[in-house]
Amino acid sequence: MEQTNPKANFSNFPINGVSRNHVVTIMPVPAKKLVIKNLKSTPELPEDYMNQTWKKLKGAVVAIQQSKANQYSLEELYQAVENMCNHKMASLLYKKLQSLIEVHVSRNIEQFVAESMDRYLFLKKMNETWQAHCQQMIMIRSIFLYLDRTYILQNHISSIWDMGLELFGKYILLNTLVQTRVVEGLLMLIEKERQGDQVDRSLLKSLLRMLTDLSIYNVSFEQKFIQATERLYAAEGQCLMQELEVPDYLVHVDKRLAEENERVLHYLDSATKYQLIHTVEKQLLREHVSQILQKGLDQLLTEYRLTDLGLLYDLLSRVKNGIVELCSAFNAFIKKRGKTIVINPEKDKSMVQELLDFKDDMDTVVTKCFHKHERFTNSLKEAFENFINQRTNKPAELIAKFIDSKLRAGNKEATEEELERLLDKIMVLFRFIHGKDVFEAFYKKDLAKRLLVGKSASVDAEKSMLSKLKQECGGGFTSKLEGMFKDMELSKDIIQAFKLVHTSNKKLSQIDMTVSILTMGYWPSYQHMEVSLPEYMVKLQDVFKEFYLNKHSGRKLQWQPTLGHCVLKARFNSGPKELVVSLFQSLVLLLFNDCDELSLEDIKVATNIEDGELRRTLQSLACGKARVLLKTPKGREVQDEDHFKFNAEFVNKLFRIKINQIQMKETTEEQKATEERVFQDRQYQIDAAIVRIMKMRKSLTHNLLISELYLQLKFPVKPADLKKRIESLIDRDYMERDKENSTQYNYVA
Amino acid sequence: MADENENEKMDNENQKPEKMFTLKKWNAVAMWSWDVECDTCAICRVQVMDACLRCQAESKKDSYGKQDCVVVWGECNHSFHYCCMSLWVKQNNRCPLCQQEWSIQRMGK
């Protein structure tokens, strides 16, 4: 195949179709010579050339000034100027032009000085004159362009345009009367616009441009304008603060600021912007910051008006200290509002939920309205911590109980994710609490109940809560709680092993027994009660006890009948049922296998249950919702002479019935006991902390030790208490006073 | 926790129709503690059920620190934290309470 190169084809052609060699041959050089001779005489200008030309030019300028048709073409005039310049008449030409313009401008002044006319008309006329002047100067300049570019440029004098401005300024606007009239007119127009009227913005723009061009904007206008602004908004601020609600006022201020910004955009010189906006901010906001906050913040926060709060933040962030004051007012509001939630014992029931909601709301306010400003997040925390501890112990207790209600089985209102989120939120509240050990005491009590009755909603949720607490307060805080879970697991293993050994024993395996073995110290302490169990139950207990103590030497077991619970099979006339009851309830019911009717005294003797407890037990069986016993005489309370009978006619649509025990109201004594326990624990914690610190530091002065202790301890303590603990540790030879310096302690290893 | 089927089988075998109530299931609760005469360790003045003061101060990562801080009984039947006692005997091989020669009778498990 033949490949042709396109370049190769064209390379044969001569460029431009002509070859140079060719030209030489076709056009031989002619022999003729060209001779250039000197001119005989230099060209002369006509004598009155200057006058003639100026006349021409003057005519043209005057025609322009009077807006008449020009008889010469622009080309001709331009040529004329160029000629004059080239013939050294430039300076003369400039002077003549200047005086010509001066005459025209000074003539114009008369109309502005003469009679007083309507301000608006005056401005209009002024604008017209100015516009015409500019127009004329542009045309004049284009004719005298050559002058501008040569003579003026070389001699550093004002260009034709500048000369026009100078003259205009000199004659018209430096005339104080005219100047004041113009400025006042402008201010009047702006004020009108501020009052909401439509004004001719292009007029304003043009005249203000004029002032700028004449460089008298700053001196004659700006200052007065700012003063007028200040006066207007000072009055408006005073008045509207009284008249309007704060949110409306804020909206108004925002509108004003937008308007003023627009004003700058549309006709004011951009250099005025800073001063103008600053003035508006000062008069409408800074002067009123404390009043705005005092009058409106609480309302906005209470009514949760996010948009208004956002606006408030945006506005106040414009003025000096605005944010600082907003923040402290915000802080004060939280403390005040929070205190009302926390302090009132009647509202205890809803306290935690209210706190959670309140925290949620305030978080949203900080995120959405206050741009997550660090100052506000910190202030929010500080305020919560402050008010939540206004009431000692109670919030901690209620938070613990709230968590219990959420972790307890039967709480199906939330999915696991929701529960998890809720727990996270509660942890935030928990973080604020100073008496964390009070929380622990109550949490532990509830956890024990959940674990023993198998009422915990979800092991995962429990574990997750525990790990949150651990993360927050360290392993020391949760070690006992974790121990409780461990106990439950160990108990399961033990009972399995126990059953493996004893399946062969028919008598024992009739009853499905499980035992929860609790480590004393991990669990809350329970009141111990001796009760009489049926023989076969005692036997079962003993067999188990023997089994257990064989496995674990050096231990002793104490049965806790108050915590036991059972499932009883019952045969009613309507059919068999299963009753889920406490151990005490079962003991009472089991008595009715042998007798039909029993008195209170009989039951007391047979079961040996403590009187108050027994009465409550009987009440639950005979006066509650599920009355498996009949009491004579009838009544709500159990009296000394009451008799009880098995209710064979008992009916219930359920097969498995849970009979709730009647809870003793938590008495103040019990409350005190819990607190006392907490106090006891605190002493150990203080001891441990002192030893920990001293072990690390080896020797420390009293004050340093105390301050380190305050850092470590998670509950409020008085220095006097710490001193007592230190004394006690010195007595026990954990540490000693330095022999030379009595304020110094040394660690004794 | 319980094997229901197995239980029901048992119950059927042992039916005593004249009884109105039969105990089917029993969740008993017991509390264990060291079988000691005095529940405070005479050396560290902390309850023997709790970890000794030094163990607490070290705040062990193992949250079930008690397994490490067991109780020890001497022949004299006095009991202390094992940790406390092992430090004590380095100085003085006598029971701090009765001054008898210290020898271990048993250890908690």
Q: What's the tally of helices of chain A?
A: 31
List low-confidence stretches of chain B: 1-16, 61-66
Shape of chain B: elongated
What's the total count of β strands of chain B? 4
Helix amount of chain A, in percent?
55-70%
Taking pLDDT < 50 over at least 5 consecutive residues as the criterion, the unreliable ranges of chain A are: 1-15, 17-24
How would you describe this structure to a colleague?
Chain A: Pfam families: Cullin, Cullin_AB, Cullin_Nedd8. Chain A: InterPro entries: Cullin, Cullin-like_AB, Cullin_CS, Cullin_homology, Cullin_homology_sf, Cullin_N, Cullin_neddylation_domain, Cullin_repeat-like_dom_sf. Chain A: Belongs to the cullin family. Chain A: This is Cullin-4B. The complex is a heterodimer of chains A (749) and B (109). In chain A, α6 (119-143) crosses α9 (176-194), α22 runs antiparallel to α23 and α29 packs across α31 (719-731). With 749 residues, chain A is mainly α. The longest helix of chain A is centred in the C-terminal third of the chain and has 30 residues, at 668-697. Chain A has a 3-stranded mixed beta sheet. A 3-stranded antiparallel beta sheet of chain A has the order 5-7-6. A 3-stranded antiparallel beta sheet of chain A has the order 9-11-10. Chain A has 31 helices and 11 strands. Chain A is 65% helix and 7% strand. Among the domains of chain A are: 49-159, Cullin Repeats (5 helical Cullin repeat like); 181-284, Cullin Repeats (5 helical Cullin repeat like, Up-down Bundle); 564-658, 2-Layer Sandwich (Ribosomal Protein S5, domain 2); 669-747, Winged helix-like DNA-binding domain superfamily/Winged helix DNA-binding domain (Arc Repressor Mutant, subunit A), CATH 1.10.10. Chain B is α+β, with helices and mostly antiparallel strands and 109 residues long. Helix content of chain B is 24%, strand content 23%. In chain B, β2 (71-74) and β3 (79-81) form a beta hairpin. Chains A and B meet through α23, β1, α25, β2 and β3 of A and α1, β1 and α2 of B.
